[in-house]
Design brief:
- 2 copies of one chain form a homodimer.
- Chain A has 8 helices and 3 strands.
- A 3-stranded antiparallel β-sheet of chain A has the order 1-3-2.
- In chain A, a hairpin with a 2-residue loop joins strand 2 and strand 3.
- In chain A, helix 2 crosses helix 7 and helix 3 packs across helix 4.
- The radius of gyration of chain A is 14 Å and the shape is globular.
- At the A-B interface, helix 1, helix 2, helix 5 and helix 7 of A face helix 1, helix 2, helix 5 and helix 7 of B.
- Chain A binds a DNA duplex through helix 4.
Chain lengths: 115, 115
DNA sequence: TTTATATTTCGATAGATAACGAAATGAATT
DNA sequence: AATTCATTTCGTTATCTATCGAAATATAAA
């Protein structure tokens, strides 16, 4: 018997992962930038990113010390393409999301990382 | 600060709740009929149904001893309408789902309930 | 008004998940 | 080569969730 796959919904059922997806819609970001906005431990953010990546929502691009994460431009799963292109429908722009978006616009990697 | 609402995704991230939604797409069913197909305790099925109902995916209609559950024909949340009308897109008809569908067509309430 | 049946509620428990800090890894700079 | 910094991995812990069986509730039948 095959098992019903719920990993897309499970991935989307954590508020911090939804915040990350919305943030990455503005621009690609490294782990420490995301950590700065979410105010979570870097290890926690890294874990969220690995889940989003494994399921196919985002991709990573290494750049020296940094790992830049961005929305997957070509997901192989149509359901993931659909969610990504209709993110605003699924996640309303409430205060948290709006505030994240403002912070993302302002983040300066040289400020936030290394300090 | 408002909290990001993940209850739709959380509701959809349990395989047994997805099976119930798919079954109810074939026809409305009572708790014991669903219990018979899923092979779970009646209390567990009842709990899944209450979650699906509270979030808005299904409605209930009392009929004597029985409580019939069915897909909500007029959800107030557009996201729920969307999920319901595109269920086949989100949940592929794998063996479990197909087998459930066959069982649902055959279930006879007077057989399954009371025995 | 008992009895039977369908469902829900409750309490307990096992397993999953998110969070953290510490340690390990990898890459650039000194 | 040693150091620094970004990230990941690991081990632990607290919380959440799905499950069960037993008890409570509600309705119908005897």
């Amino acid at each position: 018997m095959t098992k019903i796959d719920t990993k897309i919904f499970k991935t989307l059922s954590d508020p911090n992962r939804l915040r990350i997806l919305k943030m990455l819609q503005s621009k690609s970001l490294c782990v420490c930038e995301i950590t700065d906005v979410l105010k979570l431990a870097a290890s926690t953010v890294s874990k969220h990113l690995s889940i989003l990546r494994e399921v196919g929502f985002i991709i990573e691009q290494k750049d020296g010390k940094w790992v830049n994460y961005m929305i997957n431009p070509r997901p192989s799963d149509a359901r993931i393409s659909s969610v990504i292109s209709t993110l605003d429908f699924w996640i309303s722009d409430d205060q948290v999301i709006l505030s994240d978006k403002q912070k993302v616009q302002k983040v300066d990697r040289s400020e936030v990382c290394s300090r």
